[in-house]
Write a structure and sequence with these properties.
This protein has 276 residues and is of the alpha/beta class. It folds into 2 domains: 63 residues, Helicase, Ruva Protein, domain 3, CATH 1.10.8; 188 residues, Vaccinia Virus protein VP39 (Rossmann fold), CATH 3.40.50. The chain is 37% helix and 18% strand. A hairpin with a 5-residue loop joins β8 and β9. The relative contact order is 0.11.
């Protein structure tokens, strides 16, 4: 059996589990071979698969059980950069790149950036890699997320410009020592508590990073009223939202004195709110 044969068979196994079965199989095999996917596809598809089948089959079995490919590989690409991820840390999605693009357009010269609920650090790190004059703080209530975000900042050469803190915006005094910021980024939990999600998500990703009460709005109601003391005059806050939440979250922001602009992702769906 060649590498190509093994990938084809694995894709057949994964068809019922994944909408990207062939891609998943290729990524898993490349991971086992310790090659880039492109190098494997160009140079190694006729190689003998036998020495690698046991390791490959074990990874395919994990994916068949709906474990996200990013957790199996231990990494996820975001905004052209690679980030370490692991169970307990929300996997960054391409739709969230909307926030980075908005940050670079709305606050290109931001000196101080706060990322609330930083997870892997993908939003903060991507923004600071593009804005080389900025300093950033990322907060997360999860110890696992704080450790992973710190490791990602170091891996991207940003240890001197990024500080990761374990903080919860629900705790009294959590922001007392942080000062003010030119830009705040936030991808909070915003899924309704009774929402039905794919097994890849609900069975594996951290529930505390997903769910936020019966309407998915509980965390917006906690965070947005606190923004006034965190933003410099003229500062900008950019929030990710569920694609049906623009009106409701805008109402919360208006009650706290903010003007709001709705931004769309590449699919044309409401994806982010810019608060000023």
């Amino acid at each position: 059996m060649t590498i190509a044969d093994a990938i084809r068979a694995a894709a057949d196994r994964l068809f019922a589990t994944s909408d990207t079965a062939r891609l998943d199989a290729e990524l898993l095999m490349a991971h086992v071979l310790r090659l880039s996917r492109s190098d494997m596809l160009l140079r190694h598809m006729r190689d003998e698969a036998a020495p690698h089948l046991a390791s490959f089959d074990a990874l395919v079995a994990r994916r068949t059980a709906h474990e996200p490919i990013a957790y199996i590989l231990g990494r996820q690409e975001f905004f052209g950069h690679e980030f370490a991820v692991m169970p307990g840390v929300l996997i960054p999605r391409g739709d969230s790149e909307t926030l980075v693009r908005a940050a670079l357009e709305m606050a290109p010269d931001a000196g101080r950036v706060l990322d609330m609920g930083t997870g892997s650090g993908a939003l903060l790190i991507s923004s600071l890699l593009a804005n080389t004059g900025a300093q950033g703080i990322g907060i997360d209530a999860s110890e696992t997320a704080a450790l992973v975000a710190s490791a990602n900042a170091s891996a991207h050469g940003l240890s001197g410009r990024v500080q990761i803190l374990r903080r919860s915006w629900r705790d009294e005094g959590w922001a007392d020592d942080l000062g003010q910021f030119d830009l705040i980024l936030c991808n909070p939990p915003y899924v309704e508590s009774d929402a039905v999600l794919d097994p890849d998500v609900c069975d594996h990703e951290p529930t505390e990073a997903l769910f936020s009460g019966p309407e998915g709005l509980d965390d917006y109601r906690v965070i947005i009223p606190q923004l006034g003391k965190l933003l410099f005059s003229g500062g900008v806050a950019i929030f990710e939202i569920g694609h049906l939440q623009a009106a409701q979250v805008s109402d919360i922001a208006h009650e706290s004195g903010f003007t709001v602009e709705v931004l769309h992702d590449l699919g044309g769906r409401d994806r982010a709110l810019v608060l000023t």
